[in-house]
Write a structure and sequence with these properties.
There is one protein chain. The chain contains ten helices and 15 strands. By secondary structure, it is an alpha/beta fold. A hairpin with a 2-residue loop joins β1 and β2.
Length: about 425
């Protein structure tokens, strides 16, 4: 078979009408076009694979840094907190230790942002009306902008319910609005925010992030933030959501990467429409929540609990810090340096231990395995899972057994107290 292109033209000759037709063999041209199309598809596939590999590499690095960084911070903050408790506030050293604690807390915030970039968000999610949440936040955002910057909105599409933490929606909105503001340095400009419903098939595949994201729902709530600023250079679009990438000034660059992490954790996606000199449009797509099955309560949690806690961590300093904080809260503590030792201790004293604080990442037997084995011995044992970095979603993964509470290192005594109150409400 060959491909033929036929061109025909009506002509008149000697008072009679004719149809002049010419046929040309275009088989070779078709073959070249098909080869070019296939080459472009392969190039796109290679680019996507490279982007995914780079993202995974960044994720492994960020996760490893966060894990070790948070463990060290936990030691620093735990010891500082205990020293501060023993010093009178008028002691000359007290203010210096308080400043050290404040610096450690700020450092922990950076680590938290790194984990958020990985999609490791642990905040409790509620059923939120996306438009209403944005409507409540816009007046506060307007105060952060210069007086000449106009913040327009179309938030009339109420009733689009998403499952998210309100602070995370605020974080997405604030970062996108500030990013749009900084993209336009003109004397008078407008940033526009809107919310609407979008069918999955209408979501553009161009400049979509994460690059491997596929819409699995039929409908999505779309939060759109647009500006008329300088736009984004084509070569920079793929780098937009990388940690610390910025075309602005030194010290910036975590905002958009954290936005992507939050969206990733919510099984959503982001598209970017932009042209240099023509502005940009960022669209965040979040699954619309159709139902809220809730979490089945544990009837045994209302029983009067004891006060002996098993602390499981492979790092001795982590065990000592957790034990000291728990003892300050009035608990008795039993320590285990591994998952195997924890199970052995629990089997020997099943009626004595009334709660477990367990590190998630340990060699040989990790926290999730320990949790599963503990529940086989005593199905109603309250467990608090602790981690400085998680590769699994603590409350959304495939694990059958779930902890009553989750703690992210580094944590303060009050955060540990809140977790204990949640896991052992009557202790």
């Amino acid at each position: 078979f060959i491909d033929v292109e036929i061109n025909s033209t009506p002509v008149s000759l000697a008072g009679r009408d004719y149809l002049y037709a010419a046929a040309r063999d275009i088989t070779e041209r078709k073959r070249m076009e098909e080869a070019l199309r296939a080459a472009n598809e392969r190039e796109h596939e290679v680019a996507v694979a490279f982007h995914i590999e780079k993202t995974e590499s960044l994720g492994r690095m960020a996760g490893a840094i966060a894990h070790h960084f948070n463990n060290k911070l936990q030691t620093v903050m735990g010891n500082l907190e205990m020293v501060l408790d023993d010093l009178p506030q008028n002691d000359e050293s007290y203010k210096y230790l308080l400043e050290a604690m404040s610096a450690a807390e700020r450092a922990s915030e950076i680590s938290t942002l790194m984990l958020t970039y990985l999609g490791q968000t642990h905040e409790v999610r509620d059923s939120l009306d996306l438009a209403e949440t944005c409507r409540n936040e816009l007046p506060k955002l307007q105060l952060l902008l210069p007086s000449h910057r106009v913040l327009e909105s179309d938030l009339s599409c109420s009733g689009l319910i998403v499952g998210a933490a309100v602070n995370q929606i605020k974080h997405i909105l604030q970062n996108l609005v500030l990013n749009a503001h900084e993209a336009d340095d003109s004397a008078e400009s407008t940033v526009r925010v809107s919310v609407r419903e979008v069918p999955a098939h209408e979501i553009s595949e161009l400049n979509r992030f994460p690059v491997d994201w596929c819409a699995r729902n039929d409908r999505y709530a779309c939060l759109e933030v647009s500006d008329k600023g300088c736009g984004i250079r084509p070569e920079d679009v793929d780098k937009l959501f990388e940690p610390f990438f910025t075309s602005k000034f030194t010290g910036r660059g975590l905002g958009l990467s954290v936005v992507l992490g939050i969206v990733r954790a919510h099984d959503g996606g982001i598209t970017v429409q932009t042209e240099p000199g023509q502005g940009s449009v960022f669209c965040v797509y979040l699954p619309i929540k159709l139902s809220d099955p809730g979490v089945a309560p544990n009837p045994d949690m209302e029983k009067e609990m004891g006060r002996t806690i098993l602390v499981v961590d492979d790092e001795e300093m982590m065990r000592k810090i957790a034990s000291s904080l728990l003892e300050d809260l009035g608990f008795n503590v039993v320590e285990a340096a591994s998952g195997t030792q924890a199970l052995q201790t629990f089997r020997e004293y099943p009626g004595t231990i009334h709660g477990v604080v367990c590190d998630q990442r340990m060699p040989q037997m990790g926290g999730w395995e320990v949790l599963a084995e503990l529940r086989k011995i005593k199905p109603d044992i309250p467990v608090i899972m602790v981690s400085g970095y998680s590769q699994e979603q603590p409350v959304m993964g495939d694990m059958v057994e779930r902890p009553q509470a989750y703690l992210i290192k580094p944590f303060r005594r009050e955060q540990l107290r809140a977790a204990m109150d949640k896991a052992l409400p009557n202790a």
